[in-house]
Each structure stands twice: as structure tokens, then as C-alpha cells.
Amino acid sequence: DQQVKQNSPSLSVQEGRISILNCDYTNSMFDYFLWYKKYPAEGPTFLISISSIKDKNEDGRFTVFLNKSAKHLSLHIVPSQPGDSAVYFCAASDAGKSTFGDGTTLTVKP
Amino acid sequence: EAQVTQNPRYLITVTGKKLTVTCSQNMNHEYMSWYRQDPGLGLRQIYYSMNVEVTDKGDVPEGYKVSRKEKRNFPLILESPSPNQTSLYFCASSLATGGSYEQYFGPGTRLTVT
User: Fold this and answer.
1) What does the DSSP assignment read for chain B?
2) CA-derived radius of gyration, chain B
3) Percent of chain B with pLDDT over 70
4) Distance from CA of A109 to the nearest CA of B (A)
5) Which of A12, A103, B26, B91 is the 20 to 30 A CA-CA neighbour of A38?
6) Is the pLDDT of residue B99 over 80?
């Protein structure tokens, strides 16, 4: 049973518009949620995180929203830039264990 | 430069031939972890270590071993590799255990077992 799901394998948006990436989870014990970005032939790099006791965290163009009752989180990128084109992974943490979603490939068109 | 290094970056081997993938970090991080990534899938955690001599299983530990004898190194050992262990492997480290600490990832090791 997949505990962290990213239901959209891909997303394409126009430069300057908003990108919204979604993630659903099933395990109520997760205490932190993180987003990572991955370019081809590189390891993932951290983007932004949110504690399970918060509902929003913002860092520049990136905002993560958490809806604990719906077990849903989303990453908003505004405005989207071509350099944001990458695979985005949602990850959830429970003590030392980390569970990742399958990723969403974001393409930002100039 | 703060980094996580993995060696080798690419490896082709045969079924049953023991191999070790090394992982080293220079950030004095307490926490280290190994993941595998298969096509179309996310990263699945193999093993993690919260400190020296402390290791624990992730979601897919079968067929793998790890050790943490020093803080900076966390090697992944495949005693008898099989074709289903063909995958892209990532090592990661973070300052401490706990979800608030982001993980720093190595560049990956692409392993092919024939």
C-alpha cells in the first residue's frame, strides 16, 4: 500500500503562470513533509518543508499547503520559470523513516 | 565544499558477485540513508542510520546490508546481487534524525546486475 501518492505523473504550464503539484498520504504518523526537486543525472535537492502542525509554509516563489484532515498537501510555484522544469518528489517523514511519492514531472514552457 | 559522494557512479556486475557501494559525507551529519529508484517510481528507502553503530531497516531492506562504523561513511553491501537489484541508488545525509532536517543526496550509483 503506497503511503505517499502523487497522482499526476506530469504537469505542463506556461512560464509566468502558477504550477500546483499535489500529494496525498495515508499515514497519520507522518510529522514532516518535504518537497525535493530532481534534475536528470543528479540527486534530489531539498526545496521546502512543512511540519504537520502547520498549514502553510512559504519560501520565495514556493509555498506548501497542508490539509491534515484531507491528508493532502500541495506545492505552489509562482511565477513558474523554465528553470523549474524538473521532477518534483513529495516526501513524508516518521522519525527516521522517509517515504517518497513517485514524482511529478513539471515542464514550464517559455 | 559540502557534499555527499558515492562510488562507483556506474557498475555492471554479474549475479552473485558481492559488491559494495561506498557513501561518504563531509558535513558531520548524524543521519544517513540509502534509497533505490526504479523507472517511474519514487525513492524507496533501503536502510538508514541515526548515528554511528545505529542502523535500521527502511521499506525495502531485503538483499542489502549496511554498516556505520564511522560518522562520515555508510557503505551499502550486496552480498549476492540479483537482477532485481538493478536500479539507481542514492545515498543521503542530514544533520540529525527528524523530518525537519532536509536530506542532502549524492549523485547516484547506477547498478546493473546481469
Assistant:
1) ---EEEE-SEEEE-TT--EEEEEEESS--SEEEEEEE-TT--EEEEEEEEETTEEEE-S--TT-EE--SSSSB--EEESS--GGG-EEEEEEEESSSSTTSPPEE---EEEEE-
2) 13
3) 99
4) 22
5) B26
6) no
- Numbered residues of chain B with Cβ closer than 8 Å to any chain A Cβ: 4, 31, 33, 35, 40-45, 48, 50, 56, 58-59, 90, 92, 97-100, 102-108
> What pLDDT band is residue B76 in, cutting at 50, 70 and 90?
very high
Q: A15-64: per-residue pLDDT in tens? A: 999 999 999 999 999 999 999 999 998 999 999 999 999 999 999 999 99
B40 has a pLDDT exceeding 90: no
Predicted confidence (pLDDT) at residue A69 exceeds the cutoff of 90: yes
Element housing A56 (H / E): strand A56-59
